[in-house]
Write a structure and sequence with these properties.
Elements: H1 20-25, E1 34-38, E2 44-48, H2 56-70, E3 73-77, E4 82-86, H3 90-93, H4 100-108, E5 112-115, E6 134-142, E7 145-154, H5 163-181
Antiparallel strand pairs: 1-2, 3-4, 3-7, 5-6, 6-7
Helix pairs in contact: 2-5
């Protein structure tokens, strides 16, 4: 664990304020769910809660099946990081933080079909991917909240993505969202 040098007191309602710098660095927004852990030494550990992380192995298997069926690369994310990758680029993407643009897109609940040359193209991670020329992104909704995305990627700009890919990611996102509800 890394010490921050910041000390906060518990108020009369049992609350502790997480400093703004830490919230910004860890992308903690108002309403972000946190899991609370304790250890034997009396430490309290706060961890961002991701309902999609529970589907980790299943999401990986689903991404593999989707990649095989579509012939495209597939990413499944939660609101913070890439959870599963299939069809290539695994080492470049898995467990990387998502980009601010993808986070904003989730907030808009939009489906995007774009090529790298278009202004609505959204990088998956902050580092971006040089190889990726096309993408189709759909939000995963669970009980009305966006909990992640399903993304199809292609290196071949000549191929184009359209209505079929849009339906494919939408169906996948709906399926994963329903899995979380059940």
């Amino acid at each position: 664990m890394k010490a921050t040098g910041i000390v906060r007191r518990i108020d009369d309602l049992g609350r502790v304020v997480i400093p703004k710098e830490i919230r910004r660095t860890l992308r903690l927004r108002e309403g972000t769910p946190l899991e609370i852990f304790t250890d034997r030494e009396g430490e309290i550990i706060l961890k961002k809660y991701s309902p999609m992380a529970e589907l980790g192995i299943f999401a990986g298997q689903y991404a593999d099946a989707l990649a095989q069926g579509s012939g495209r690369m597939v990413c499944i994310t939660d609101r913070d990081q890439v959870l599963a990758v299939a069809g290539g680029l695994k080492k470049d993407l898995v467990q990387k933080s998502i980009s601010k643009e993808l986070e904003q897109l989730m907030g808009k609940r939009e489906i995007v079909v774009a090529s790298k040359s278009e202004k609505n193209f959204v990088p998956v991670t902050e580092e971006g991917l040089e190889d990726v020329a096309l993408e189709t992104i759909a939000p995963i909704l669970c009980e009305g909240d966006v909990i992640g995305t399903v993304i199809l990627l292609s290196k071949e700009e000549k191929e184009k993505m359209g209505e079929t890919e849009k339906r494919l990611v939408t169906t996948a996102a709906n399926f994963l969202g329903r899995q979380m509800e059940g």
